[in-house]
Write the structure tokens for this entry.
Amino acid sequence: MECWHCERPANAVCSFCGRAVCKEHARKLPNLITVYRTRDQKLKGIATADAVFCGVCHPKNEPVELEELD
Ligand SMILES: [Zn+2]
Ligand SMILES: [Zn+2]
């Protein structure tokens, strides 16, 4: 696969849209993986701090207020 931006060999794939990117063009974004409810009924989210992001797409899971899901 080649980088979406520069067509050199890609090193990673965007976690949000699947576009391939090289090291130079890869960006990092927190990626919310899962949401769960604790015993005291609070919603919590588990996120990777540095998921690969292509810099092109527009993931909707920017910082989210988990309480709003409740
Ligand atoms: Zn590139
Ligand atoms: Zn992307």
Summary: Residues 14 and 53 are 5 Å apart (CA to CA). The chain has a mean pLDDT of 87. Residues 1-57 form one domain.
